[in-house]
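In this supplementary section we document a worked example of the pipeline. Step one takes a protein sequence of length 201 as its only input; no multiple sequence alignment statistics are reported here. Step two produces a three-dimensional model, which step three serialises into structure tokens for compact storage. The input and output of this example are shown verbatim.
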Amino acid sequence: MTQVSLTNLIAGARAGLLVSFPTDTVPALAAIPEKAGLIFAAKQRSQDKPLILMAASAEGLWPYVKGSENEYKVWQELADKYWPGGLTLVLPASQRLPKVMNPIDPTTIGIRVPNSAIAQTILAQTGPLATTSANFSGQPPLQTIAEIENQFPKVLIATTEYQREIPGIGIPSTVAKWTGINWQILRQGAIELDLLTDNQV
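The serialised model returned by step three reads:
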């Protein structure tokens, strides 16, 4: 039985177990950053597809990235505009980021704050988690508890809260990468970025 209370799910995540919870986009498969390898293994995911670091607030994420004072200002402006929400920012990673989060290129990391009450509740107590969509790599994101439990029988799922949560929109987050001078859209998803206004340094 992998359906557990929210308290047990949070305890499990902190202990290094794989967990799943709803977000504002698609359900997440998550683990503490040091245990990110479990996600790659469970999803049969290629090492060149990095995970996203998710936290309850931007403040929890900034220590994992590094940039100039001016860059932080640009990043913060975009975060203030779209977070919490379906936008992932790919930024230069700091030394604090475990290499296992992005094994092929540990110099960058995608970060996001989800607009979901249950995700926020969990992340506020676990700290930032390595996340990705709950599905086998290359397949469509799973949307229901039954699907997730069937595909990932050992993953902890918080059920009662899951059922009360408004389902995510079913579209993954938009991914924007900082090139050092502007933003490059890697994936158009839940949020439509206006790069003319959002691209100014």
